[in-house]
Every structure is written in structure tokens, then in C-alpha cells.
Amino acid sequence: MAALGWLTPRRRSATARSVLAGEASAEAARKSSQELEELAHDAAPGADAPDQEPEFPVLGDEKAAAFFDLDNTVMQGAALFHFGRGLYKRKFFETRDLARFAWQQAWFRLAGVEDPEHMQDARDSALSIVKGHRVAELMSIGEEIYDEYMAERIWPGTRALAQAHLDAGQKVWLVTAAPVEIATVIARRLGLTGALGTVAESVDGVYTGKLVGEPLHGPAKAEAVRALAGAEGLDLSRCAAYSDSHNDIPMLSLVGHPYAINPDTKLRKHARTFEWRLRDYRTARKAAKVGIPAAAGVGAVAGGTAAAIALHRRRR
Questions:
Q1: Where is this region: Disordered (predicted)?
Q2: Is 115 annotated in the active site?
Q3: Lowest mean pLDDT segment, chosen from 19-23, 184-188, 266-270, 277-281
């Protein structure tokens, strides 16, 4: 599924793609939250909850909400990497199937550059693999794998921050480049309101092989938050956002209360310059110098590619 996130129509401008992706993700998140908000919020704050300002979050402020990045902010490592581990355990794919595409994606994530021809080929291939498969299949697999690999990797400190917003009567949303289906499973398990994620087009519950807009990454995350805030009647100056990555500076800059959580080097520098609050829940290691830990690079790519290949294999 990670592969789905990198297909973008060349004819569209980057801004138009970001807006489309943001609006699509916001719509999907609002629909999923209708079910999630019926569940009891039973998650308790973590032991290492931060010393928050007495006035924030503001109790009963219905114009405020919180937006949390997922990978390395709420969860240690990348959600798609853990998802891929679960699929590999179930023998849905073989390691050699990952090599070509994983290398292309890893190079883009680690070096920050991409070969347009190679990336377009990878995007087309990934979308063709999932075309014709049911969304429910991905959701079902995600439920099982959350229990196996993800539940124990939630940062207690970040979860405490999210719980503080919930306790104040505010909605809390995950905002991630991971597929919205996986993000929704994680949000529900954490007792959050819902999730904004990358949206792959589906008709009658079946993937069409197309992406709606672009992956929810960087500026697209900001557009998704902006769209959701408008639909929910939120005042962004009273909202909070949390992330570990400098790629999310556009989203963090939208809100009145930006937090850098387990920040990479660039985000830490930016946060200090603009006097944003920082929280670091990692122990015995520093942020990766390339800006993302290894699991979010090669691992996340392998996991996402694994998801697509697994669905393809089960189809046969």
C-alpha cells in the first residue's frame, strides 16, 4: 500500500494534487469517525506524560482539536513496516519480490531525490497489483497485525498527550501518509476520533487502481487538516498538531499549538527557532541524521510493498 502513495498525475500541479488529496482524506476521516466516536475512550495516560501548561488543552473548547502524525510520533517505527512484517509471517510474499521497488522507494526517502521514470513505473505497478481487491481485506488484516506488532510500540508519552485532548472534550485525529484504512484501524484501537490518510480510489468497496489526489505527505497533510477543520467548524489557532518530521512543518505551522515529538534534526532546529514545544520519548539514541529512522525508510517501503504483493498473491 505504501506504493500507492507515490502515484500522481503529471498533468496536475503540485498544489492541485495536495488540495485534492487533502479533501479526499478529510472526507474519508469524517466518515470513519462516525463509528469511532461511538466507542468508549478507555485508554489511560502513559506514565511519562509531559507537564502540560495548565491552560492547555482547554477543557470544553469545541473549536479546538488535535492532529497527530503517526510514524515515530505516536508509534515507534513505521506502521507499514509493521504491517509488512505481519504479512511476511503469514507467508503472503517472498523477500525477493520486494527488492526492485523497495530500493527505488528507499532511495527517494533516504536521499530526498527520485528518478521520475523509475518512480512512475513503480507507482503504476503497485496500483495495478491492488486493483480489483476489496478494501475490507486490508482492514481485516490490519486488525490482526495491530495486536501482533503495533500495540506494544505506541509511545506512552504521546498517547498521554492525545488522551489529554480527549479528556478535555476535544477530537483527536491521526494524520499520516499510510493508507487511510490502516490508519483508521490504529485510531480506533487507540480510542481516537478518526484518521486522515492516503486515499486509494474504490468503487463498491473494490480498489480501482487509482489514487485520489496524491499521497498524504508534506503539504497534502496541511491541506487535509485545513479541509477537515473547515468541515468540523474548528479554529486552527486553537488547535494542536504533533509530529516528528520536518516534512510536517506545513501542518504544524497551521495550528496555534505546534509540538515537535521525537523530532528529526531539521524539525528540532525549526522548533527551537520558532519556540515550538518539544517532547522526546526516545531513550539511548538520537534522531537519525538523515531525518528518519531506518524502519521508516527501507522498512516502511518493504512493508507497504508487501501489502500490495500479499493482496496480489491471495487473488491468484
A1: 29-54
A2: no
A3: 19-23
* Catalytic residue of the set 48, 71, 235, 264: 71
Nearest CA to 172 among 70, 254, 79?
A: 70
Catalytic residue among 42, 61, 69, 147: 69
Strand-pair partners of 154: 75
Specify whether 122 is located in the same domain as 196: yes
Sign of CA dihedral 311, 312, 314, 315: positive
- Residue range 114-144, pLDDT digits in tens: 455 554 554 554 555 567 778 888 788 889 9
> How far is the C-alpha of 182 from the C-alpha of 307, rounded, in Å?
11
* Strands in 74-217 per DSSP E: 171-179, 194-198, 200-203, 206-211
* Cβ atoms of residues 193 and 187 within 8 Å: yes
69 is catalytic: yes
> How far apart, in whole angstroms, are the C-alpha atoms of residue 251 and residue 248?
5
> What's the pTM?
0.69
Instruction: Count the domains in the chain.
Output: 2
Round to whole Å and give the CA distance between 83 and 310: 11
Structural domain containing residue 304: 281-315
